[in-house]
Amino acid sequence: MIFLFGLLKLLCQLLTLAIFLRAIMSWFSPGATSTPASILYQVTEPILAPLRRIIPRVGMLDFSPLVAIILLQLITYILP
Fold this sequence. Notes:
Number of strands: 0
Shape: globular
Number of helices: 3
Distance between the termini: 10 Å
Order of helices and strands: HHH
Structural class: mainly alpha
Strand content: under 5%
């Protein structure tokens, strides 16, 4: 059981890093279609897409990555 919680914590941390990297990449190369950008998109979009339906954009700002990171960190903190 501890192994499962440890694996879940690691997954949350990796997803947090992937979302952070995707947000940073979107600032410097918004239309990037390279392989790393494509992989980050495929990994993070299943988490960010549902949040985008709930959280509206504020002008040009998309707060769904911030909310996703906060939720993932909260899950990491709650797990034993």
